Amino acid sequence: PKYIIPDCFSGFSPRGDRGGRGGRGGRGGFGDRGRGGFRGGRGGGFKSPDGGFRGRGGGRGGPRGRGGRGAGRGGFGAGKKVLVEPHRHEGVFICRGKEDALVTKNMVVGESVYGEKRMSVEEGETKIEYRAWNPFRSKLAAAILGGIDQIHIKPGAKVMYLGAASGTTVSHVSDIVGPDGLVYAVEFSHRSGRDLLNVAKKRTNIIPIIEDARHPHKYRMLVGMVDVIFADVAQPDQTRIVALNAHNFLKNGGHFVISIKANCIDSTAAPEAVFASEVKKMSAENMKPQEQLTLEPYERDHAVVVAVASPPITYTCE
Amino acid sequence: MLVLFETAAGYAIFKVLDESKLQQVDSLYKEFETPEKANKVLKLKHFEKFQDTTEALAAATALVEGKIGKSLKKVLKKVVAKEAHEQLAISDAKLGGVIKEKLDLSCVHSPAVAELMRCIRGQMESLITGLPPREISAMSLGLAHSLSRYKLKFSPDKVDTMIVQAISLLDDLDKELNNYIMRCREWYGWHFPELGKIITDNLAYCKTVNKIGDRTNVAGSDLSDILPEEIEAEVKLAAEISMGTEVSEQDIGNIRHLCDQVIEISDYRIQLYDYLKNRMMAIAPNLTVMVGELVGARLISHAGSLLNLAKHPASTVQILGAEKALFRALKTRKDTPKYGLIYHASLVGQTTAKNKGKISRMLAAKASLAIRYDALGEDTNAEMGVENRAKLEARLRQLEEKGIRRISGTGKAMAKADKYHQQKRKRRRRKRRQRRRRKTMTESGVCVHIFLF
Questions:
Q1: Do residues A110 and A32 make contact, with C-beta atoms less than 8 angstroms apart?
Q2: If you measure CA to CA, which chain B residue comes closest to A191?
Q3: Tens digits of residue pLDDT in A61-106
Q4: pTM
Q5: Residue A135 to residue A143: CA distance in whole angstroms
Q6: Are B312 and A36 in contact (CB < 8 Å)?
Q7: Residue B449 has pLDDT above 60, yes or no
Q8: What's the CA gap between B355 and B396, in Å, rounded?
C-alpha cells in the first residue's frame, strides 16, 4: 500500500454550486498558481443594520469563515495519509481516504491544470504525484465512476479527442496514455484554444489542433492513425463528424467513446429516444455500439456510448 | 498513377505499382497489413522535406485554405509534370480542382483514393523511408503548435510573462545591489571611513572609490565629473586627515572589482527599467496610463498574468498585495485594509490621508476596467485609460475642494450639511420604527394582513 500526503483539501462540487463555499474551492494554499482569489466570507467590518431579522455578523461569520475551507465535506485534510490503488482501467487510480477520489498520475509534477487537488506519494525514494479527476467537470471521469466496462484509453494509446475545450479532460487523458501515447486534441473555439495551447505547451504528448472537426481533411497533415476516438462535441450532427474523422484517421478495429447530450441533439424529444436514435445512426455509419451508460448522478440527460469500428466486411461472413 | 500524401515533415509522392488492387476498395486494407505488402503496392517516388518550420507552416496554412503553397507547386512541377500522363491522387477534391486549373495536371479523388490514403497513413513509417518515426512526431508536434499559434494570432509582444519576469528581476537586482553597496562601503570604510559619511549617494561612492583606489591618490585625481565641487573639496580634505589603515594593492584591486560590478548592475537596472516601461506600454497601455508602469507591472505579476488580473473584481484589485492584513481583519472581524499595491500609484500618493481610501477605491474601479480592456479587447490604444484618468483627476479635485470648504466653511454650506444630516437621522429613525412594527405584526398574527386587502 502506498501512503499519500495530499497538498490541500478536497471535496468535489458541481461547477455551479458554490453555496456553502464562498468562492473557489478552498484554496487556502497560496503555493498554488496565481494568488488573489480570496473570496472567503464577508468583511469583518460589515455592520448589520439595526438588529432586524438577521443576527449580527457573528452567527454568519463563523461558519462562513470555516466554510471557505472545505464546505465541511470531510475529504482530505492537509497532511492526512491516504491510500492510492490502481483502478480496473489501466492508467487510472483511486485515492482512498475519508472520501474516495479518482486520480491520474501527473505527468507534469507540481502543476495543476485547472486548480484541482494534487497528492504526492512516497515510493522508496521517488515521489509520484497524482491529480484528482472531477467527475462533475469531466464526462470521461463520470463514465468511469458510473462503471463503464472499457474506456480503451490506455498507456501508449493514440487518442483523437474531438471537442477538447480548455484541455481539462485532455490533460487527464494525456496522463493516462503517458509519454508513449499521443492525444490529438481538436477544438474550434479560439478562447478555449488559447487555454488548450497552454496545456499542450507543458505536455508534449498533446498535439493541439485549432480546427473545425467537421473538416478532417484540413488537419490531415498533423495526424497519424489513432486507436481511439473520444468525442465530446455537443453538436446535432456529431455522429457524422465522428464518422468523418474515423474514416480518415481511425485504424481498423479501433474504438469510439462518444458522449451524447440529449438536449443538444433534440431538445424536444425524450432523452432515451434521443440516445436510441443516435445509436441507430451510429450503426448505419459503420460503428458497432458495444455499451451505453447514462452519466447520472453527475450529469443530467447525458449518455456515453462505446463502439467499435465495424469489423472489415470479410470477417463478418462467419 | 501517382499519389500525393502530405505529412508534417514534407510532401511524399508515391507511384502505384499495382493499379488493379485499387479496384477492390473493400479489401485494400489487406494489402497494407504489413510493411512488405505495402511496399509491393506503392513505391516512394519522391519525398520533399520541408527545410524549416516556416516553410512547413506556410505549407500547412495553404493546405487548410485549399490553395497551392509554394513548396507544393515546386514539388508538383518537379516530379509530376514529368509524367503528365499519369493521374494524381489527392485527399482533397477542392485542392484537386485548383491543381488542375493552375498546373494542368489531372487529379482524381474517389472513395478508392480515400481508402488508399487511409492505408498509407497506417503504414506511413515504413513507406516513407529515410525518416525516423520520432522525427515525424516531433515535426507534427512543432507544426501543430505553430499552426495553432498562427490561427490564434498569437503575437509575441503581447506576452505578459516578460513583465512578470522583468519585475521579479528588478526586485532581485535591487536586493543584490543593496547588498553589494553595503559590502563595498564597509570594506572600503576600513581604509577611508570618512568617505562613507561625506558621499551619501551610493553610485557616486562606488564611482569615486573606483577612480581613486588608494586614498593617497585623492589629491591628484579629478572627481569633478562624479561629484559636485564642495563635496570634492571635502573628500580631498578628509583624505589628508583620514584615520583609516593602509591597505595593499591587491585589496584595492578587489574593492575596485566590486565597484565595477556595482556600476554595471546599476546601469543594467536602468536599462531593465526602460525595457519594462516599453513592454508595459505595449501590453497594457490603459493600465499604464492609469496607475503607472511599476504599479501596473506589480499588479500583473501578483495576479500571475494579465488575463488572471482581468478576472478579478475591482474590490480585489484594490487590495491586491494586502492579503495578510485582509485575512487577519476578516478573521478578527476588524476593518479590512483600504489599499494594497494600488497605494503606490501616483493618484493615490498625491491625495491627503483622508481621501486616500476614496481615491483608492475609485482608482481600482477604473483601473479594473482598463485591465479588462487591455486583456480582452481587440485593439491596443490608450484612449480609454487617458479618459478615465482625466475623470479621476477631476473627481479628485472635487473631493479636495469639498474638504477645503469644510475647513473654512461658509455658514450656508454648514447649514445645508446639517439639514441633510438631520434628515438622514430622521429617515433612519423612521425605518427602524417601521421594521420593529413589521416584526411585531408578524408575531402577533395574520389577521392584520387580510384587513389591508
A1: no
A2: B152
A3: 333 333 333 333 445 556 677 889 999 999 999 999 888 999 999 9
A4: 0.69
A5: 8
A6: yes
A7: no
A8: 9
Q: Do B137 and A252 touch (CB under 8 A)?
A: no
B124 CB neighbours in chain A (<8 A) are 224-225
Using alpha carbons, select from B175, B177, B196, B176 the residue that is nearest to residue B185.
Answer: B196
H/E element holding B74?
helix B70-75
Is the N-terminal amide bond of B111 cis, ω within 30° of 0? no
Q: What interface predicted TM-score (ipTM) does this complex get?
A: 0.74
Interface test with A, best of B7, B137, B148 (most A CBs within 10 A): B148
Which residues of chain B does A200 touch, with a Cβ-Cβ cutoff of 8 Å? 145
Q: Cβ of A222 and B60 within 8 Å?
A: yes
Residues of B with CB below 8 A from A50's CB?
Answer: 432, 435
Q: Which residues of B touch A53 (CB under 8 A)?
A: 439
Quick one: cell of B9? 515533415
All structural domains of chain B = 2-154 (3.30.420.220), 161-278 (1.10.287.4070), 284-399 (1.10.246.90)
| Cβ proximity of B54 and B147 under 8 Å | no
What pLDDT does residue B115 have? 87
Residue B243 DSSP code: -
Q: What are B281's three cell numbers? A: 506600454
Domains annotated on chain A, with CATH? 3-7+79-132 (3.30.200.20), 139-309 (3.40.50.150)
| pLDDT tens profile A170-192 | 999 999 999 999 999 999 998 89
